[in-house]
Amino acid sequence: MNVAIIVAAGQGTRAGGRGDGSGGGRAKQFRELVGEPVIIHTLRRFEQSAMIGEVFAVGPAAQSSALLQLLKQYQIRKVARVVAGGATRTESVWRGLQAVRSTTAEIVAVHDGVRPFVTPDEIDETVRAAQAHGAAILAAPIVETIKEINNGRVARTLEREGLRRALTPQCFRYELLRRAYETALSENLTATDDSALVERLGIPVAIVEGHPRNIKITRPEDFALAEVLLKEFAD
Amino acid sequence: MNVAIIVAAGQGTRAGGRGDGSGGGRAKQFRELVGEPVIIHTLRRFEQSAMIGEVFAVGPAAQSSALLQLLKQYQIRKVARVVAGGATRTESVWRGLQAVRSTTAEIVAVHDGVRPFVTPDEIDETVRAAQAHGAAILAAPIVETIKEINNGRVARTLEREGLRRALTPQCFRYELLRRAYETALSENLTATDDSALVERLGIPVAIVEGHPRNIKITRPEDFALAEVLLKEFAD
Predict the structure, then answer these.
(1) How far apart are CA B28 and CA B119, in angstroms?
(2) How close B15 comes to chain A (CA, Å)?
(3) Which are the contacts of A188, defined by CB distance < 8 A and separation ≥ 6?
(4) Do the chains contact at A146 and B153, CB–CB below 8 Å?
(5) Least CB–CB distance from A145: residue in B144, B156, B166
(6) Do the Cβ atoms of B206 and A162 come within 8 Å?
(7) Residue B198: which residues within 8 A CB-CB, separation 6 or more?
(8) Per the CB 3.0–4.6 Å rule, which of A49, A54, A108, B221 could disulfide with A123?
(9) Residue numbers in B near A190 (CB within 8 A)
(10) Does A97 touch chain B (CB under 8 A)?
(11) How far is B73 from chain A (nearest CA, A)?
(12) Which B-chain residues 173-212 have CB contacts (< 8 A) with chain A?
């Protein structure tokens, strides 16, 4: 079975949250977007995915019962387990991975809980690419000009055709992701995405072209943009 | 004297405009943001700059009188000339450059008309860096993970600490920018920013760290984000 680990354990401090679920200071994954919490929008995409059989939702440790309550309220049915997250994203994914049944897991899709704009088709296509290649990530083109810098000066302008912004989901064969995390944890490595940990093992990672709309809601102003995108999305 | 070329000659088709100034189909630089056209917000930043003496506003050829009217209506005083733009950004900047008096121009700051969130301090700091080094651009850190791709696979994850998103203004000694454009035009080169044309001459370009808020308003959803940023900006 293919499974998804949805990482939503952040304290949301950058978006003004306090991570304790109180009042307006809620962590960003629990804040409402057009009347529903962000994490619920995200989970619905995985409910609609044909390829994902089970979801492991990794939330803040102190919010497990609140998250369970939300799943019930919004009738999210694919979540097999709510997992208490750790202090870092790496630790949270690792805890999610330990909750997955190793005997039946085929592909594991890791996805940011604050990326509600992924489509079920994008999820399914990335899972299929991981089935074919072992590892695959969703990625979007870059519209800005990117400079490599050195010592406060431009070293060169990169050819943006050859660059992509990494999005999620990032999908891997279970054993591969498990090995990548074990290596990272034993060597105390950190990375800005899961793919980088797998790349370090020398494993080729396939690229699936995704829509740039699949933003990560991080800063307070992202909510305003997200409201607009969500309305457009619904049309 | 230091001068600015504000490039606002786009037809705005990506933001849903028709470029003819009619109704809701206005080119994006003429669309209103919190009650004022985007281009006016941008020009105000240059009005407030201590280092910029004159501004050359490059607009759509068919909109010169409309643009002049706006300058009068909003009491923009630094614009020395409204210049009719060309078919491409390169051509528009080149036309702006030809309007600049070569005998008195020291630094030329090229800025996108649809970047209203630059601050007067950022403009001044970039002009000063160009005075010291010959060429300087405003640039912002990258928050996402960037992958170099090859043949549909990840070639490597780039170290984002060594990367920057190029913003504007991009500031150059007049002769240097003129030479860069003459070379580009004679060799029929295009580039995604002005700095790349100067870099091609082998000239070092200094980096000035700018705020990520300095976005280019390009897509329809950017207007929603821009409204939020502008309200925050005003506080």
Answers:
(1) 20
(2) 14
(3) none
(4) no
(5) B166
(6) no
(7) B135, B172, B176, B177, B180, B205
(8) A49
(9) none
(10) no
(11) 31
(12) 191-193, 195-196, 199, 204-207
The DSSP secondary structure of chain B, one letter per residue, reads: --EEEEE-----GGGT--SS--GGG--GGGSEETTEEHHHHHHHHHHT-SS--EEEEEE-GGGHHHHHHHHHHTT---EEEEEE--SSHHHHHHHHHHHS-TTT--EEEEEETT-TT--HHHHHHHHHHHHHHSEEEEEE---S-EEEEETTEEEEE--GGGEEEEEEEEEEEHHHHHHHHHHHHHTT---SSHHHHHHTTT---EEEE--TT-----SHHHHHHHHHHHHHHH-
Tell me the pLDDT tens digit for each residue of B164-196: 999 999 999 999 999 999 999 999 988 889 999
Query: What is the CATH classification number for the domain harbouring A213?
Result: 3.90.550.10
Surface-to-core class of residue A84, CB atoms within 10 Å of its CB (0-12 exposed, 13-18 middle, 19+ buried): middle
Inspect the interface and report whether the beta carbons of B164 and A150 lie closer than 8 Å: no
What is the pLDDT at residue B12? 57
Residue corresponding to tokens 């403009």: B123
- Joined together, the tokens standing for residue B65 give 């009188």
pLDDT value of position A192: 87
Both structure tokens of B172: 């150059």
The residue type of B85 is: G
How far apart CA B165 and CA B142 sit, in angstroms, is: 6
H or E element that contains A157: strand A153-157
pLDDT tens digit sequence for B49-106: 999 999 999 999 999 999 999 999 999 999 999 999 999 999 999 999 999 998 899 9
Number of structural domains found in chain A: 1
Question: What domain range includes position A116?
Answer: 3-234
Is B224 within 8 Å of A225 when comparing Cβ atoms?
yes
Query: Which residue(s) pair with B5 in the sheet?
Result: B56, B110
Tokens at B33, concatenated:
């943001």
Q: What is the dihedral of CA A84, A89, A93, A96, to 10 degrees?
A: 10
Mutation for B interface: A213, A221, A230, most B CBs within 10 A:
A221
Helix (H) or strand (E) holding A94: helix A89-99
User: How far are the Cα atoms of A88, A181, A189, B139, B148 from residue A93, in angstroms, in the given order?
Assistant: 9, 9, 14, 33, 24
| pLDDT (tens digit per residue) in A187-222 | 998 888 999 999 999 999 999 999 999 999 988 888
CA distance B82 to B57: 5
